[in-house]
Amino acid sequence: MASVVPLKEKKLLEVKLGELPSWILMRDFTPSGIAGAFQRGYYRYYNKYVNVKKGSIAGLSMVLAAYVFLNYCRSYKELKHERLRKYH
Amino acid sequence: MNENLFTSFTTPVILGLPLVTLIVLFPSLLFPTSNRLVNNRFVTLQQWMLQLVSKQMMSIHNSKGQTWTLMLMSLILFIGSTNLLGLLPHSFTPTTQLSMNLGMAIPLWAGAVITGFRNKTKASLAHFLPQGTPTPLIPMLVIIETISLFIQPMALAVRLTANITAGHLLIHLIGGATLALMSISTTTALITFTILILLTILEFAVAMIQAYVFTLLVSLYLHDNT
Questions:
Q1: Does A39 touch chain B (CB under 8 A)?
Q2: Which residue of B has its CA nearest to A76?
Q3: How confident is the model at residue B11 (pLDDT cuts 50, 70, 90)?
Q4: Which of B206, B182, B213 is nearest to B84 (CA)?
Q5: What value does the mean pLDDT take over residues B192-212?
């Protein structure tokens, strides 16, 4: 099925569900590609929440909240023994 | 309470890969650089704070000592941010590991001492003998001064490790005690909770003070030797 725009240049929200696997496989998975993805993501967040005229505490707090959440996921294995349950 | 109180201090490893590298590198994300004259609030605040700290800390040095400004400022930022991030729940504090603190203390101290020995050999050797000691005491005093010199990096590292580890342990213990006391007697639990609040405030202060002390001492050793 020929699309008007080639699959490679579509953004994620414009990709149809059936085309999703091929879209994912077409992404750039080289080290420089992955580094570019991280850099793009960082600057997207930075320019939206921090690098604005009246930045608030929310820009920093969201990062710290994500950090706390990731650390929780990392230590879940030890933490699940401390839940208040009768049988662990 | 963990089956072992120290499980929160183990180095995080995920599937055998050292996650600790990422955790050590994380604070660098919180200090964005900017080449502009007028920046956003976040960067402006950080630059203001950095200017305040660097003026206060580097004003005592001569021009040779002030070449260390970048090193000392990065040091205080790193230790301060790592300690403060460690106060978040479930996070891992790299400065609780003695290995890392030794890795910071020994090269910095050695750099300062060796600079002193290379450039001002007589003055550096003269540090081993305080002024006006009676002659019979000289050999013993030289030995004591040598020992006190070599203990400086150990003291730097152990001071930081012990302070941060002890604070975290206390928070764990008192938090666990509050939780356990909740079902037994609510008033005691409230008292323990107040203690926990005060302790947390103390820990915030300690986090920043320890960074300051570490950097200040390195700067002092530098001042002696330049």
A1: no
A2: B90
A3: confident
A4: B206
A5: 83
